[in-house]
Design brief:
- The longest helix has 34 residues, at 9-42.
- The relative contact order is 0.12.
- With 117 residues, the chain is mainly alpha-helical.
- The chain is built from 5 helices and no strands.
- The radius of gyration is 19 Å and the shape is elongated.
Length: 117
């Protein structure tokens, strides 16, 4: 028999809630990893973009972990911009998505200027 069967209804609900929260945290960590790897793949500094979007969150251990888990661009799979924006949207990171959009526009403008020279 499973220990779950011997728990009170309240204990079962609390355990279930903890499992849901842990699953959400793991999914959020995956979103952070998608963001940090996208930054590596596209030549952006993840910490800089994140701090522009969330200036009150100077130290973010989960962001630091995501940065540590990235691989060089050559070893990573492609992460389309639409995928990144979709993942950010699921977790309510519209501020970060806005900062990324601006950074992409700036990068494209710089590329055009360089091509014109």
């Amino acid at each position: 028999m499973d220990d779950y069967e011997f728990m009170t209804r309240e204990e079962q609900m609390k355990k279930r809630e903890e499992q849901v929260l842990e699953s959400y945290r793991q999914d959020e960590d995956m979103m952070i990893l998608v963001f940090t790897q996208w930054c590596v793949n596209n030549g952006f500094d993840a910490k800089d973009l994140y701090q522009r979007a969330y200036p009150d969150q100077v130290d973010n251990p989960r962001l630091e972990q995501g940065i540590r888990l990235t691989v060089p661009k050559e070893e990573a799979g492609d992460i389309p911009n639409d995928t990144l924006f979709g993942v950010l949207s699921v977790y309510g990171n519209e501020d970060l998505a806005f900062v990324i959009s601006e950074a992409l526009e700036d990068q494209e403008a710089a590329r055009r200027r360089q091509n014109e020279e």
